[in-house]
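Quick one: structure for this chain?
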Amino acid sequence: MADLKYYDVILRPVVTEKSMNAMADKKYAFYVNPDATKGQIKEAVEKMFAGAKVASVNTMNLTGKTRRRNSAGGIVSGKTAERKKAIVQLTADSAEIELFTGL
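Got it. Here's what it folds into:
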């Protein structure tokens, strides 16, 4: 297992309609490092965003999808990248994550 620092754990936020609706319940979605554990994700969110207190972390591994395309040499197939997504539930008395305000 890799020695991950807290700033290497969270890669970017997930900005979709479903994730924006979940923010009303203080649930935030992030793409995270595939080697990160739930404890590391919790620590990273609490250190990176001041006033955030994490109640729970749910993770899911997203497998790469098979894609096909036509090229000059014929049909070429490949896969998209595999990712890991984390849904972070904040406590009721926690501060909002400023990254998502105004979106």
